[in-house]
Amino acid sequence: MNIKDLADYHHPVSKLFAEVKEQVDYEPFALSKEQVEHFDEYGYVTNVKILEEDQVDVLRKALDEIQDPEHPARDLFYEFHGNHSTNPDTVLFHSLGHWRVSEAFHDALWNPAFTKPASQLLGNKAVRFWHDQLFCKPAGHGGVVAWHQDYSYWIRTVPMQHLTCWIGLDDASTENGCLNYVPSSHRWGLLKRLELGGEMDALFEQLDEALQAQIKPVPMELKKGHACFHHPLMVHGSYENKSQRSRRAMVLNVFADGTKSDTDDIMLRGTDIRVPKGKALDTKYFPLIYPAN
């Protein structure tokens, strides 16, 4: 069977999202000055509408298809964890690389409702795609995503000019395990990396008393189709799903154009992708998704 690798297409391949022909077409999706200032102060901005309801429906259908362990394009995934939880009594589906497999998830990279805010929060720079993720917590026994900083997993790239966008494919609430932030923790510096599916509060054991006193998590309760953006050093995590509703989310990770490799080793775990140390990440696996103004 001939499998198409969508990484070969550096443009939308469907009509799922708004078409952009010139810079003015991005303007309806711009963040306000107040939203950008909130991000700078607290390390995040929330409740940004990214998807319309029909787009959520298409992405959910695509998610159902790619969760199949027998999916014919399974080898194109970077990682595929039917259960990434270290607790056998809970479930955390986690995958990376599905942009290469699904037209809907591929085209979400070029959605102007995502790319315009991303550029603004990166200082109005051109934006390249880093990698995608799916996190799915089934009703009743969905596992945790332990407190962590995204850049602790990305130190093989420099300088630190990265950004994460967490997008709900279900309504996200405290009961079903929504994302939580520790406001202004992006000012704490880089902490030691720990296991994503491990003990929820293990990261905090690294902190001195002064920083521990600042741990006041804020839940990011969102309607489906809405998103949070956060700084690469933002401390964040999510608790288990105790509700009778699923909690599915897609995550898009990006960096400013000009980011370089800081290693000669494999760039993305589960792949053979390499970029020589000191070279810009501008291969087909890191497409330009928002051009310079």
UniProtKB/TrEMBL annotation:
Gene3D superfamilies: q2cbj1_9rhob like domain. Its cofactor is Fe(2+). One of its GO terms (molecular function) is iron ion binding. InterPro entries: Phytyl_CoA_dOase-like. PANTHER family: ECTOINE DIOXYGENASE, PHYTANOYL-COA DIOXYGENASE DOMAIN CONTAINING 1. This is Phytanoyl-CoA dioxygenase (PhyH). It comes from Agaribacter marinus. The lineage of its organism: Bacteria, Pseudomonadati, Pseudomonadota, Gammaproteobacteria, Alteromonadales.
